[in-house]
Amino acid sequence: MKQLSIFVENKVGSLAEVTRILKEAGINLRAVASFDSPSYGILRVIVDDPEHARELLLSEKHAVKMTDVLAVELVDKPGALDGALQRLAEAGISINYVYSFVLRKEAEPLMVLHVSDMEQGRRVLQEAGLRVVDKLDS
């Protein structure tokens, strides 16, 4: 799955500028996570049309990076995330960051993972019987 990381200044309205651009283009924002430092923030998003969103944001002078991430479906019960993370740890795969989101049409939450070895991470999770989602329905 493709994720966009958008670098934004830590000032009033900077996030709203990004969401306005996406809204005006009819791009659906499916997941969002924000990480900040004193002078800037990183807005990580999953959208229904990442290529178009990337081009639009670049044309508006936003710094944008497209990254592959794993979106793994987890059963909504205690220990589900731990089971997935334990499998990755046993395989020697480090987690760079993680965040979650829920699709209303789906029964289970999705955890977004960026790991040190994406292909091996995908394999390990699938071998553990977990569903890795490649694309979201619009």
Overall description:
- The protein has about 140 residues and is α+β, with helices and mostly antiparallel strands.
- It is built from 4 helices and 8 strands.
- The strands form 2 sheets. Strands 2-3-1-4 form a 4-stranded antiparallel beta sheet, covered by helices on one side. The protein has a 4-stranded antiparallel beta sheet with strand order 6-7-5-8, covered by helices on one side.
- A hairpin with a 3-residue loop joins strand 2 and strand 3 (about 40-45).
- The two termini are about 15 Å apart.
- The mean pLDDT is about 90.
Helix-strand layout with pairing:
Blueprint (H helix, E strand, L loop, with lengths): L1 E8 L4 H11 L4 E8 L3 E8 L2 H10 L3 E6 L1 E4 L6 H11 L4 E7 L8 E6 L2 H10 L3 E3 L5
Keyword list:
138 residues, alpha+beta, Alpha-Beta Plaits, 2 domains, four-stranded antiparallel β-sheet, 4 helices
